[in-house]
Amino acid sequence: MKTTFTGGALAVLAPVAFLGFLFALPAPDPDGGAWPSSDFAVVGALVFDGEAFQEDADVWIAEGRVRAVGPDLDLPDSLPRVRGRGRTLLPGLIDGHVHTFDTARADALRYGVTTLLDQFTHPSVLAAARAARETVGESDGADLFSAGFLATTPGGHGTEYGLPVPTLRRPDEAAAWVDARLAEGSDWIKIVYDDGRLYGIDTMTTLGLETVAALIDAAHARDRKAVVHVARLADGLAVLEAGADGLVHVWLDEVIGREDAARIAASGAFVIPTLSVDLSVAGDRGHRELLDGPAAGRLSSAQRASLGRSFPDREGSRASAEAAVESVRRLYAAGVTLLAGTDAPNPGTAFGISLHRELRLLAGAGLPVEAALAAATSAPADAFDLGDRGRLVPGRIGDLLLVEGDIRNDLGRTLDVAAVWKDGRPVGLAPPTEVLGEAPPAEGPLSLGDFDDGERPAAWASTTDEMMGGASEAELEVVEGVLVVRGEVKPGFAFPWAGAAVGLGRDGGTADLSSLQELRFRVRGGGVRARVMLITAGGAGPPPTVSFPAGEAWAEQRLALADFGGADLSQVQAIAFVAGPAPGRFELRLDDVEVR
Amino acid sequence: MIAPGSPLRIHLAETRYQLVALSRTPAFAIPTLAFPPMFYLFFGVVFGGGRGSAMPTYLLATYGVFGIIGPALFGFGVGVAAERDNGALSLKRVVPMPASAYFVGKLVLSLVFAAVIVVSLFSLAAWGAGVALQRGQWLALAGVLLAGTLPFCAIGLAVGSWARSQAAVAIVNLLYLPMSFLSGLWIPIGMFPAWLQKLAPALPPYHLSQLALEVVGLNQGGPAALHVAALAVGSVAGLAVAAAGFRRVGAGGGIA
User: Fold this and answer.
1) Is 0.85 exceeded by the ipTM?
2) Average pLDDT, chain A
3) Which of A92, A228, A374, A485 has its CA 20 to 30 A from that of A241?
4) How many CB atoms lie within 10 A of CB A458?
């Protein structure tokens, strides 16, 4: 009897023990090792799908695209899982207003900005950008859509950056201009309607409203959108009246009235407020917190440089950050479609990180968290017809931003990035290892040329706008122990220059000037206005510049390095002494150039 | 309590006696239980490529199949042949015990062996080779392996019903080892020359290993239903051959 009982108990206990053993076996650590790629699921996350939050939802990525979204998805056992509990999952963010320079796409991606809408860049980058965005696979940067060159007049906004912008003046040039852009690969047309007066610039020209209207019509006739840069409310209302699809900034001069806001809402046009750059233009320095914040570790030197830079304070500027923010509040209240944009890498902004600040600025202007996030996801995808991004719904590209915590009450947490996926592939969040100056910080005075031996030093060379398609000329020779720079600044390029540059590092390397204070040189120039440009490694956008007078007599110039706003002095490649942009012949004589 | 004389009790008792009998023949029990984990220790843990390699997971599935078909083939093939030869089968026939108790006992024995092998292999894989699977995968893999003993019990029975005990040992070994190798249980079938790979679908262990590999996402493809069907055909064929075998032997000691 006893043995039978033992046998029966064993028959019950053994299977139970076996089952218990199976339940004790280890499951994969959701975050163990590398983030999964291409086919995986984020489980139990707070999911923002592009319009609204879903709590405790799973997002299944298959072959780099969203396969399914919802609570308790029936996921295959073998599918790698990522912990979503305690985290928020968003579609990859879309920055509606940037200008791409070399590191832009990779820099943006490290902050979960997976798509960039470029509102003016050199079209040479467009073909590669188009190829990259049309493949779902390995990717080294955010996807790029672009207006290419912008539409402006000779001497108008957009011509001051050193890009050979093809300009136009009259309405009858509009159709050919638009055709040329589309042939270059522009995805839409961007137009400048801004004479600079609001910022205190009184030399800037701009297109006439008829030409703006003709450009808009030409774009629409070719089934493309036309967006416009304005600085004043009246200009914005005028171009929207002319049929513009959207404004790429909010105006900075006054607060919009409720009727006007309602009219914009009724027109269906969108506004990209770019509060990040507007606040920087108006003198706000709130962006500096990004340089010291917890997410600063992912900044490249180019991002640090553009964040650290400031717009010059101009007398007569009437740009008002408060007016811009208040207008955004009224636009949202009226139901106008708002898109998040930064205008990176303008002074005070940087690719990627600044879009997170823009979200907070939009929330500060009265947008609920969902609306602010939609402005960086579904809204730009809809406004620019980017069909397969901006939402976490089946079929869309697997561009994902996973952040720690619940962001509904604190948009600042979006910078606490756990992981980023582009096309379902995990993105490395570490900043690029950059080639820093091979020299240790220069300590004593650094002599760049006294020209006393009568030879032109190898480090000196001529520099002109020819590299950007301009026609200016310059040549160097050493005469009687002095460097003579002769040349002619010629129109034909929008922002011409010509002069001499001295390289600081060997073989195109850099020098670390961060412990030095000023640039000293003796100069004579027959009364021209000349400039010094500091060329730094990783610098994005136009180089920081300080101008100086070159008079009839020899004079010593002392320029504080600190005045080259935002320049990364730890890696200076070259210093250029140039004439321009005023056209004409010039002769600069330089001697005893040193940094101390 | 189970009433004395009830069918369940008889089945339990027969199972228990077979277990006791088996525990007294360590020459069968020890190698059958020790070889699969030993192989796995070498090729899955020590030479498995470490964390991140798929090899430990692959070999967990295939050595699992290798492990569970051994006791099934030997228990039924050699066991039935031997017990018929030494008269134990005739003895069991004359006691008031349903014939099914004999087969259920053998089957439970195979399952117990399979469970022991599952525990040892899974332990080595989980805590030695760093294999981590979802709970559902561990359960499904164990389920496939336990259920997978059935077709091989039938095949073993086919051998045991026809062969004499000495011949049965040789036949089962000839079936077991080459079949295991050619089905890709020792090294992945993808490493075979193409002509050799074509042979595998004719072998039942290949189909069971594909079902096991499908659980961990490492199968070669091909619908699971096909593999199940192949194993079902193998089982029916084995039972048919066994039935014919027992009929042939008839009163000469057969039980059926």
Assistant:
1) no
2) 87
3) A374
4) 8
